[in-house]
Design brief:
By secondary structure, this protein is α/β, with parallel strands linked by helices. It has 12 helices and 9 strands. It has helices at 13-31, 54-65, 86-93, 107-116, 131-145, 161-173, 189-198, 209-213, 233-240, 247-250, 273-276, 283-302; strands spanning 43-48, 69-74, 99-103, 121-123, 152-156, 176-180, 202-206, 218-221, 258-261. Helix 6 (161-173) links the parallel strand 5 (152-156) and strand 6. Bound molecules: phosphoric acid mono(formamide)ester and norvaline (NVA).
């Protein structure tokens, strides 16, 4: 049966571990240009309805480095903008391609596409989740910290799509995750409730950023207004100001803290220039790891 990654809840702990191992190995091999062309003759449709730098290009490069062909599809140039149903598009593209990575607004649209597609469907970001991002983020945590158990991981800022995928990962891997968000900007209650029901991770919510980052081993932040929320930008800036990741906040963390951001970063908003470019920031390695993790994901779903 085809396997999709629509949310991290589609994966079991063993799947995470296999992806981490495989991505690390691919990273080592890529330094020697020793990739095996396991996806030769296969094609990946990359259907994006929102902007992207990292996710798009790393999926494209991942496909090419594994011997396959990426085909970028601007969703706005397809017949979907003229109301061709998602279910028809999914069935037709399944006849041309071997897998698709989709970036769109609605998780329901993605789920419907996957339900009608006969090829693997990968969530490359929706308003609700960003699962591949958090897979490569965890790979970065493992590289820097040797693992993820017994770490205090602090999320500071908006309870958005990336935070939701962190919550899912916490539920499956048993992470110790504290999220500090302004009132009204906490993660979606259904996402939190579902994670808490699994009773494996420690998930704490607070509106106090100092409490979240105190003694943290990992601090993560993301933009205050995600794609699709541009009209709320100004109002959000006022509310989120106390949640800026700056030197004063980072000083409260463990002395070996790593600072993460999925990028793009808005310097002077959710993170200061000093912190982003400072000694604790791992954001460039974090961005690189998207390539290696996407290769591991594509191999796992497509090389059969
Ligand atoms: N982190 C991330 O998903 O970046 P892009 O929006 O550039 O793909
Ligand atoms: N939360 C951000 C992530 C960008 C990679 C957004 O959805 O815009």
């Amino acid at each position: 049966m085809k396997k999709d990654i629509l949310t991290l809840l589609d994966l079991e702990k063993k799947d995470f571990e296999n992806l981490f191992d495989r991505a690390m190995k691919l990273k080592r091999n890529s330094k020697n240009r020793a990739d095996r062309k396991v996806l030769e003759g296969k094609s990946l449709g990359i259907i994006f309805d929102k902007p992207s730098t990292r996710t798009r290009i790393s999926f494209e490069s991942a496909m090419l480095q594994l011997g396959g062909t990426p085909i970028f599809i601007n969703a706005k140039e397809t017949q979907m903008v003229r109301n061709e149903p998602v279910r028809d598009t999914a069935r037709v593209l399944s006849r041309y391609l071997d897998a698709v990575a989709i970036r769109t607004y609605s998780q329901d649209l993605l789920n419907e596409f996957a339900a009608f597609a006969s090829i693997p469907v990968i969530n490359a970001l929706t308003d609700l989740y960003h699962p591949c991002q958090v897979l490569s983020d965890l790979m970065t945590v493992i590289e820097y910290k040797g693992g993820y158990t017994d770490l205090k991981i602090a999320w500071v800022g908006d309870g958005n799509n990336v935070s939701h995928s962190w919550i899912n990962a916490a539920a499956i891997l048993g992470l110790n995750l504290t999220l500090a968000c302004p009132d009204r900007y906490f993660p979606h209650p259904n996402v939190v409730e579902n994670a808490l029901q699994r009773k494996s991770g420690k998930i704490h919510l607070t509106s106090n950023p100092e409490e979240a980052v105190k003694d943290a081993d990992v601090i993560y932040t993301d933009v205050w207004a995600s794609m699709g929320q541009e009209s709320e930008h100004k109002a959000r800036m006022r509310v989120f100001e106390p949640f800026q990741l700056n030197d004063a906040l980072v000083k409260l963390a463990s002395k070996n803290v790593i600072v993460m951001h999925c990028l793009p970063a808005h310097r002077g908003e959710e993170i200061t220039e000093e912190v982003l470019e400072g000694p604790f920031s791992v954001v460039w390695d974090q961005a690189e790891n998207k390539l290696h993790m996407h290769k591991a994901i594509l191999e796992t779903l497509m090389a059969v």
